[in-house]
Amino acid sequence: MQRSIKRLAPIALVAATALVLGACAPGGSGSDNKTTDTATTAGTDTTAGADTTSDTATETGDTTGTDTTQDTGSQTGGIVTDAAQMGEVTITLVDFWRDAEGDWMQASVDAFQAKYPNIHVNRVVQDWSQIMDTAPLRLVEDDAPDVLTVNNGWQSLGALAKGGLVVNLDPYAEAYGWDEFMPTTIKRQVTFTTDGKTMGAGSLWAAPSARVQNIGIYYNKTLLASLGVEVPTTLAEFEAVCEAAKAAGITPVTYGETDKPIATLFALQDILGDKDAISDFIYGSPDVKVADTGLGEAAARMLEWSDKGWFTENYQGLSSGDANAKFLEGESLFSFFYSGLVPGDQANRDEFGYLQLTQDSGLMVATGAPADNLAIGAKSQHKDAAALLLDFLMSEEAAQITVDFGYMPSLHEANVPQDDALIVQEVEAAQVTEADNGYVPYLDWTTPTMWDTVSTQIQLVLARQATPDEMVAAVQADFDAFLAEQAEG
Amino acid sequence: MKVSRLETTLNHAFLVVLDILVLVPVVWFALIAVSPNRAGLIRGVNLGNFAEAWVKADFAHTMAASAVITVGSVVLQGVLSITAGYAFSVLGFPGQRAAFALVLLGLMISLEAILVPLYYQMRDLGLTDSWLGMILIHAGTGIPFGIFWMRAVFRDTSPALIDAAHMDGAGSWRTLWRVLVPINAPAVLTLCLLNFMWTWNDYFLSLIFLASPTKTTATVALSNFQGVHATSVNLLAAAALTVSAPVVILYLFFQRRFVAGIVSGGVKE
Amino acid sequence: MAAKPPASAKAPRGRVPSGARRRGAGRRRWVGLAYAAPALALFAFIVLVPLGQSVRYSLYKWDGISAGKWAGAKNYIAFFTDPLLRDSLVHVLVLVVFFALIPTFLGLVTAGLLGHGRIHGAAFHRTVIFLPQVLAMVVVAVVWRRLLGPDGPINTALKAAGLDSLALNWLGDFTWALPAVGMVGFWINLGLCAVLYLATVGSIPTERYEAARVDGAGPFRVFLAVTVPAMRGPTAVALTLTITGALRTFDLVWNMTKGGPGNATTTPAVMLFRYAFRNPQVGQAAAIGVIMAVFCLLVALALVKLTERDK
Predict the structure, then answer these.
(1) Does any domain span residue C283?
(2) C169: containing domain
(3) Which of A120, C24, C146, C302 reaches 20 to 30 Å from A457, CA-CA?
């Protein structure tokens, strides 16, 4: 082929050029239109659809209040809340819960189906990253999922809401009366203005699950007892325990970083930073700089811990999953992680305790959000049935299922089994945080690229490829670029 | 000139070193795959790993998906390449030179160059998350090499044979399938084997074009398995061997064809 | 690309005139079109149309959801100015060294060292050393991720040999992750290069060596005068396959490091995936694709030119 290429290469080049030109030429005069067409084919349609829905709902919302809906269970401006009127339908639910947590989600869905036998749920379990990466593409397909897991923030839900790919849930919230039990802090996390400019205000685009996840610290009771120390309550006490553990040959802090985890960093930020500054920054206030949020201090602290050898050995080569597997086998003392690290059916669950450290001011601040947020695809043929599922997954019954599986309930009170020491500790910490008004959102919601930026930067800091100050500057640059883009439209 | 004894020994020693370099990781992994030890230490034999990995990686679905897509693509690409190669080499057609230049262009560019628009195009036609869509993509991207290959094969076939077939009154269709294809069976087999390997081993396209866990392929299932069951190294190894098995078995039977195809520069976009 | 005709080739090349010309124009030429049409149609649908679209997308700033905006050459400029994208280009050039240059060089040297006699068990050796070429990249990645793990056999062996300081977190280390991925590419491609060269060495007529030696040439001169010229063809094939393979690295990196630690092992293909899906900047993704295609095209054409000129 060498020879033939030689002979045909010029032709190929000419052909390639012709092809390139050909591709552009017809668009030469109207290429702007053309791309716009392709780009918005799906977008325009669905946006229009979403608008219509919300308009109708707002109109009718006034006349038919929550009470009416519940009394008659009848239609309100096109919205049906009575399962009996929905007929036999099958809806697809895409979520990412596997293993023990998968059992919890499956039990919730099973309970829903038992209650509404005419509505079938086809549950599809996928990797978190796969759902996040492909949601904008999947949602415009003809067989798009009816209900799917979204993440808070601009990378996921913000982009989907802005593009009209998910349904505006305001009419459903009204029809079902979701506001009655949904705390404003939680609701705020899943609201965006319809123009796609602001997070934390405007319409509701996703429904939280009746299970909450905070970032806290799990500890191994046996190892802690072997050191003969009390459960720490402040960072100073915590570090003293780590010092003692290290001296006793115990790995103090569980850490693995190949999957770019952020839990440890955010937990430290919650202890070192100002909660209002953190919140305001995440919700896009241009007046707050990331330097004011304690992020740099948190990164510096992690670097210090790494230098002292407090993290799991070889953490640079482990994923947080690998490292936590070691923690659950009793090989390290503390683990900063999301609620639910120790599954309800874990054989040695009694071994583990949960704590949250207070700030110097005595306040307890924690990054927290519902474990799952579910949105309805704009292309769904069964939006009413989908909304009914969301309503159920936010119900008191769902909250109880959450507790029964050993996880933290949300949205409703649930009977916490007092013989399960771990969940009692988790719930107590959550109550203190709530009382201190100490919940903050996740920093990575701030911009579409913030997760990549912040998770990469902390790796750089720990590897001494960047200083904490450089990390703060990089995060600020990401934020500024996003604000500029938003302003530009 | 006789080849010296020393030279022969050297040759052997060198090849043995290469053999070891390649085989050590493979054999090590195979031993882990049959080891009952979850942490990936070699400790005896437990063939149950394969059954457990089969279930956990959902290979019942994903291997079937790989098989359907692979067989469909091999057949489609094979038939289209043979007919087009015949046209390019024996029959000729108007615009042949320009068309061949485009085929060469197709050989030289990479898949990445077309990926994004291809995704949107297939989606608009409802061909994403679809085995048919995957078959079309694999066959379509394999066609430049297929045409190139079959064209070379048919060009190098003695024209006397073709003329003889014509004398016997065979039409072009009959000449192709009754004369040209049978005598070039080894080259056709090579083309099919290469395409089988490319399609079966594909990860990138499946990752992007197949969303449903029930439709996705074994390679993607293996990658997911690595993420989800990171702590069961023996099962991961068993899953990896299972995914490799079809191509490796074909390779052991037809290694000469595989080598000939790849060293002659067989590439797919 | 094929550098030589398939094994089944029997007739000498280039002597067979095109059948079309032999039989002249007429009905048969349109029959030919009918035979070629289905393949060309599928090829155009799957490859050519998207290729043209790619070029167009690459000139826009588009998030994949809302309307696109004209961006001119911005996406192309970004490829060479954006630090992340520029880094990915540098990384892939490092991978080219490991995937292509080192195996090719070693292959060439060994071809010179090794004799040209018949090798016993050649089929066995060939089967073994060529094996990595037929394994799925995902499988290779899974295997090597474990091999290179902190507690993996490579580190265990290093520690056993008393080289504890060399037992690194290969894939988690900013300095070593990229070379570690490169080593895997080397492992994959060494067999390809060895097989290519050995086949060629075996086909050099012994008389040529004898003639060179009779002329009083030493081993090195024999290598330069006889072996090297014969190696041009296989070198071009080896380099084309391995360089384009390296430029397009995705599966391996994605399943070993996801581009990390930090961004130490990102490649253009990884960036393309990120831009196409995670934080959609579709225009940027298309521009990356177009640039990579041009690179592959240039490599192929350059190698052809090089080998042709030397002749």
Answers:
(1) yes
(2) 83-310
(3) C146
What CATH number does residue C147 fall under?
Answer: 1.10.3720.10
* B contact chains, 3+ CB pairs < 8 A: A, C
Strand partners for A366? A439
Q: pLDDT category, A41, cuts 50, 70, 90?
A: very low
Question: Nearest CA to A101 among A406, A444, A388, A460?
Answer: A406
Residue C63 lies inside a defined structural domain of this protein: no
Inter-chain touch C278–A259, beta carbons under 8 Å: no
| SS3 category, A122 | strand
**Total domain count, chain C:** 1
Cross-strand bridge partners of residue A254: A335
| B110: three-class secondary structure by DSSP | coil
The domain locations on chain B are: 60-217+244-263
Report the alpha-carbon distance of residue C247 to residue C97 in Å, rounded: 11
Q: Is residue C304 part of a domain?
A: yes
Contact A12 B265 (CB under 8 A): no
Residue identified by tokens 């209040």 is A65
Domain assignment present for residue C24? The answer is: no
Cis peptide before C179 (omega within 30 of 0): no
| Distance (Å) from the alpha carbon of B171 to chain A's nearest alpha carbon | 29
Determine the CATH number of domain B60-217+244-263: 1.10.3720.10
Domains in chain A, CATH or no CATH each: 46-211+371-404 (3.40.190.10), 215-369+434-488 (3.40.190.10)
> If you write DSSP's letter for every residue of B218-239 in order, what string do you get?
HHHHHHHHHHHTTT-HHHHHHH
* Model confidence pLDDT, tens digit, residues A217-247: 999 999 999 999 999 999 999 999 999 999 9
Collect all residues of chain B within an 8 Å Cβ-Cβ radius of residue A15.
98, 101-102, 105
Say if pTM beats, i.e. exceeds, 0.90: no
Residue position matching structure tokens 């988690």: C172
C-alpha–C-alpha distance, residues C133 and B252, integer Å: 13
- Across the interface, which of A22, A136, A316 has its CB nearest the CB of C65? A136
With 0-12 / 13-18 / 19 or more C-beta atoms within 10 angstroms meaning exposed / middle / buried, residue C31 is middle
